[in-house]
Amino acid sequence: MAEEKRNEKEIVGELKRLEDLGDKASVENLLENNEMEFDVRDKKYRIKKLSFKQKQELAQKRIKKYNTLLQEKDDKGSFIHKTESELIELYKERGIDIDGMVKKFGVLEIKKQDYYLKLGELIKNKVPEQELEPFRKEIEKIKAEQRELSVKKTTLLDGTLEIQLLVFIYSYIAFLVTEIKVGDKWEKAFKTYKDFENTENQLIDEIIYYVSLMTGTGV
Prior knowledge:
Blueprint: H1 8-24, H2 27-30, E1 35-40, E2 43-48, H3 52-71, H4 84-93, H5 98-124, H6 129-157, H7 161-177, E3 178-182, E4 185-188, H8 193-197, H9 201-215
Antiparallel strand pairs: 1-2, 2-3, 3-4
Helix pairs in contact: 1-6, 3-7, 5-6, 7-9
């Protein structure tokens, strides 16, 4: 999987597609017996929570990758990857307030959750559909604002050491835990990490999305 800097159009597309996935499935609906099943292009996949042995392997790979990123230099002997805090300070000198973006995103998230709660109560009380629409529109408006902030922040920080490490961690977890159904049996989807890296982007993105759901529940 290429680690090249993405442009805003690509990031917007990814965020919209993942939001659509999120609308179709929740952790509560997907997570049963510590595994998730999903379909991609008529093939059935599943991911399972990391075993203790897999966690040990991941920890070793993470440390190795971190040290590689930390020490990597260009032809002039300068370090290639800046840390997030270093880059945030550089942007601050240019008048770009990334910390402010994060705070604004958090305020919007609280507001969005409040609308979700109100919407849930109205649905529970079986109010007419037209009374629900204003709340849904406000939620969509907030999601659009959050997406814009996410795209801007992601674009600015896309090449940081932390982002590169996080991408690797999620990718390696996906490699470790993904299985594909062949007949009535489950088999490891990727024999090697290189096989995973060479897989089409759509499949990788969707697997990593479901991995993020599972890791959010305490892998």
